[in-house]
Structure formats: C-alpha cells, structure tokens
Amino acid sequence: MLTWTYKVVDFFYPKTVDKLDDFGIQKGDVVVDYGCGPGRYVRKASELVGAEGLVYAADIHELAIEAVQKEIVRHRLENVEPVLINGYDSGLDSGCADMVYALDMFHHVGASNRFLAELNRILKRDGVLILEDGHQSREKTLRKVKDSGFWDIESESKGHLRCRPRG
C-alpha cells in the first residue's frame, strides 16, 4: 500500500527525490537512508554517491527491505545495501556514515532520544544529519533534537534540519 501511495505522489510530484540534490551528498560518500521505506530515494542516492560510495537503505519493516531489494535488482544498484533495523539498533558500524538522512518518518519514532543516539553513533564526527519533521510541527522536532543532547542544529530550511554531532 505504501509503495503504491509513493508512486502516485511521485507521479504528480516527480521532483520529490530531487531534494537529495540539496543535501550535499558527494561522490564516494557513505550515506544512510534511515527509514527508507520502499526505497523511493535509494536510486537517486546511489547516483549521487557514485560507484565509489555506498548507500545503506535501513528500515524496521521486512516488507520495506524486500521492496528495496527489488529496486536494487531492477536498477542494478550495486552500491546499495539493505539493512533491517532491530528496534533502535541499526547494526551498522559506529562512525560509518558521512551522512544520515531520515525523511518523512521522525513523527513515527516513539523513543526519540534512543533514535537520535543511534543516528549519532553511526555518523562520523564530521558527518551531517538531515532530518525532516514529517507529520509533526517544527517546534516539536526542534524540542526533540535539542532535548536529546546529541546534536547541534547547523541550519533549518522549510523542509528539514541540518544537524552535526555534538562534541
């Protein structure tokens, strides 16, 4: 159902995935698409990091991972690796990512401090977190991020926060 919904939205708004162009993803980066769902951004992320880079498509739902695996095969995305998350443990190595982006999913997170701690753990100290509000107010997103103690907010745009690991 979710995959179908995204296909309808993307049909009417085909530039949705182009938001990744604004994040500063570079060739050779290791990027984590955290809460990737059916993989609507993995193809674009794969293109941006290039053959030298890597995209971890991470989600807690097995059906999402199955959908990502189909995208990998369909589009020959050799630099995309699906990751099934267990609770708030991604299983990824500490400091493995240049960038983590979490798009349209933060409002679903129950334990925001545990979630934000995990993102902090997997991100390099000079890495970047891109966090969309999802279906919650910016005020609520800001409060959760600040209360976690893990992040400095580098900038805000209409669509997302850009954060750096604290300390």
| CA-atom Rg in angstroms | 15 Å
**Terminal Cα separation, in Å?**
41 Å
**CATH top level assignment:** Alpha Beta
CATH architecture: 3-Layer(aba) Sandwich
CATH topology: Rossmann fold
For the record, the count of structural domains works out to 1
Q: In percent, how much strand structure appears in the residues?
A: 25-35%
SSE run? HEHEHEEHEHEE
Structure description:
The structure is a single chain. The chain is of the alpha/beta class and 167 residues long. It has a single domain, classed as Vaccinia Virus protein VP39 (Rossmann fold), CATH 3.40.50. The chain has helices at residues 2-12, 42-49, 62-75, 112-122, 138-148; strands at 30-34, 54-59, 80-84, 97-102, 123-132, 151-156, 160-165. A seven-stranded mixed beta sheet has the order 3-2-1-4-5-7-6, with helices on both faces. Strand 2 (54-59), helix 3 (62-75) and strand 3 (80-84) form a beta-alpha-beta unit. The model is unreliable at 1-15 (pLDDT under 50).
Topology:
Blueprint: H1 2-12, E1 30-34, H2 42-49, E2 54-59, H3 62-75, E3 80-84, E4 97-102, H4 112-122, E5 123-132, H5 138-148, E6 151-156, E7 160-165
Parallel strand pairs: 1-2, 1-4, 2-3, 4-5
Antiparallel strand pairs: 5-7, 6-7
Helix pairs in contact: 4-5
Structure characteristics:
167 residues, alpha/beta, Rossmann fold, seven-stranded mixed beta sheet, 5 helices, globular, disordered N terminus
